[in-house]
Amino acid sequence: MAWVVQAQAGATRVCLSGSNTVGQRLAPELAKAWATQQGWRFDGQDTPALDESRLRFTTPKGPLVVDVLAHGTSTGFAALRDGDCDLWMASRAVRRRKCRARG
User: Fold this and answer.
1) CA 61 to CA 92: how far, in whole Å?
2) How far apart are CA 93 and CA 103, in angstroms?
3) Structure pTM?
4) What is the pLDDT of residues 56-74, one digit of tens each?
């Protein structure tokens, strides 16, 4: 997908995709809290495109990038289904017809 941005070289990437309601504020704050709980250092946050956030962390195993792509619940479900993200952010349940679309 054109809006998926590349992680810095050598960084582990975790991608959250879906609801802009969840992705605008909640998901980045949850990622920061998760990293803090792990003892990782927060190195900064960028906005590479509209409705996207990239959070950078330093872990004992090297750099970690968390991309939050908040383009809508349906978009996130498609990204998860197609293997383009690791976590789906949803502000509603998935529609049955979308579940059946790919078996």
Assistant:
1) 35
2) 17
3) 0.83
4) 999 999 999 999 999 999 8
